[in-house]
From TrEMBL:
First-level EC class: transferase
Quaternary assembly: Homodimer.
Protein's name according to its UniProt entry: Mevalonate kinase
Lineage, uppermost ranks: Eukaryota, Metazoa, Chordata, Craniata, Vertebrata
One cellular component term from this protein's GO annotations in UniProt: peroxisome
Catalytic reaction list: (R)-mevalonate + ATP = (R)-5-phosphomevalonate + ADP + H(+)
Role played: Catalyzes the phosphorylation of mevalonate to mevalonate 5-phosphate, a key step in isoprenoid and cholesterol biosynthesis.
Keyword Coiled coil carried by entry: no
Main location per the UniProt record: cytoplasm
Similarity comment: family membership: Belongs to the GHMP kinase family. Mevalonate kinase subfamily.
Annotated localization: Cytoplasm; Peroxisome
Galactokinase N-terminal domain segment(s): 6-43
Signal peptide positions (record): none
Cofactor(s) required for function per UniProt: Mg(2+)
Species in which this protein is naturally found: Phodopus roborovskii
Length: 395
């Protein structure tokens, strides 16, 4: 068991193209978003395990001695099912969660407890730890916040238990794990995602682990080898939506109008493939006309998604506001509200970006200027992170 503190971060994700079409066997492009979740793990000697999640107001402490007495044989990792409802009930009792607390807070605590017990159970004794998690990602916005949470926790716990290497060498600011360790992190993070979501696709934790961009089709993922640096505005309309209901709505529309909707899904697939091709060409020497193609693809995909019935007046407003400043936007994720992305071409006037952000904020939206294709899960020295991160984590 390592004795030093560990600071780990992992990115969120956005879907660049392929929303909803991916449910019907088409390709989706998912990219790492440079808004990150951070985990600070500090070994303790007080016989306690504490979890502090300031973003969602959770702070919980357990006695290691009590956890040590649990029968954790059902926590073996593998290809079997995630914990059964009965086993989750047992974890809820251990976590001291009220019966009705199964929202974001309760699931975050359950996932932590599951991963802590499952990963650390093979130690001679369960370790005493103090863990603080802080995120730049808004929860429940379709940006992969739960996957970034699981990936960070897993990477920190596996490293602390010396199941994987510590990638941070002396005087390094940031370290990345070798491929074999990333595979292990991703596999365990998927288990954490199953506790939270039941039956996730695995895309979010894969993007958060490896970073960059992934193509996903019919359960198979593959990394794009390289990606040009792309700046975006990310806008959260803060309109809640049900992914399940939106997916069901597209399926219903496909059954009702197969000759109309099936070609739309095929066209969205073609947009994803064309975007992948253009991004590949842009790596070596991006040209202005290639950014114009990316903007056209964004506009076409947004119209297709509206035709599928997953648009929303808030997203229309987002697109209109940015179009008034010469920018191009589309929804990302399930639609029906949620988030949208806006491409920022190189050389864009600073005043134009700031005016667009101000206009979006005045609509009641949250807006960030960030990048996509961010690095995956990373280990940091405390000095390598910005002051707001240090302050939030109590460094």
């Amino acid at each position: 068991m390592l004795s030093e503190a560990l600071l780990v971060s992992a990115p969120g994700k956005v879907i660049l193209h392929g929303e909803h079409a991916v449910v019907h066997g088409k390709m989706a492009l998912a990219v790492a978003l440079n808004l990150r979740t951070f985990v600070l793990l500090r070994p303790q000697s007080n016989g306690k395990v504490s979890l502090n999640l300031p973003n969602i107001g959770v702070k919980q402490v357990w006695d290691v001695a009590g956890l040590q007495l649990l029968d954790t044989s059902f926590l073996e990792q593998g290809d079997g099912p995630a914990p059964t409802p009965e086993q989750l009930e047992k974890l809820k009792k251990v976590a001291d969660l009220p019966e009705d607390r199964v929202g974001t807070e309760g699931l975050a605590v359950l996932a932590f407890l599951y991963l802590y017990l499952a990963i650390c159970r093979k130690q001679r004794a369960l370790p005493s730890l103090d863990i603080v998690v802080w995120s730049e990602l808004p929860p429940g916005a379709g940006l992969g916040s739960s996957a970034a949470y699981s990936v960070c926790l897993v990477a920190a716990l596996l490293t602390a238990c010396e199941n994987i290497t510590n990638p941070l060498k002396d005087r390094d600011a940031i370290g990345r794990w070798p491929e074999e360790d990333l595979e292990s992190i991703n596999k365990w993070a998927y288990e954490g995602e199953r506790v939270i979501h039941g039956n996730p696709s695995g895309v979010d934790n894969a993007v958060s682990t490896w970073g960059g961009a992934l193509r996903y089709q019919q359960g198979k993922t593959s990394s794009l080898k390289r990606l040009p640096a792309l700046q975006i505005l990310l806008t959260n309309t803060k309109v809640p939506r049900s992914t399940k209901a939106l997916v069901a709505g597209v399926r219903s529309r496909l059954l009702k109008f197969p000759e109309i909707v099936a070609p739309l899904l095929t066209s969205i697939d073609a947009i994803s493939l064309e975007c992948e091709r253009v991004l590949g060409e842009m790596v070596a020497d991006p040209a202005p006309e290639q950014y114009l193609v990316l903007e056209e693809l964004i506009d076409m995909n947004q119209h297709h998604l509206n035709a599928l019935g997953v648009g929303h007046t808030s997203l229309d407003q987002l697109c209109q506001v940015t179009a008034a400043h010469g920018l191009h936007s589309k929804l990302t994720g399930a639609g029906g509200g949620g988030c949208g992305i806006t491409l920022l071409k190189p050389g864009l006037e600073r005043a134009k970006v700031e005016a667009a952000m101000q206009a979006l904020t005045s609509c009641g939206f949250d807006c960030w200027e960030t990048s996509i294709g961010a690095p995956g899960v990373s280990m940091h020295s405390a000095a390598s992170v910005d002051d707001p991160v240090r302050q939030a984590l109590g460094l």
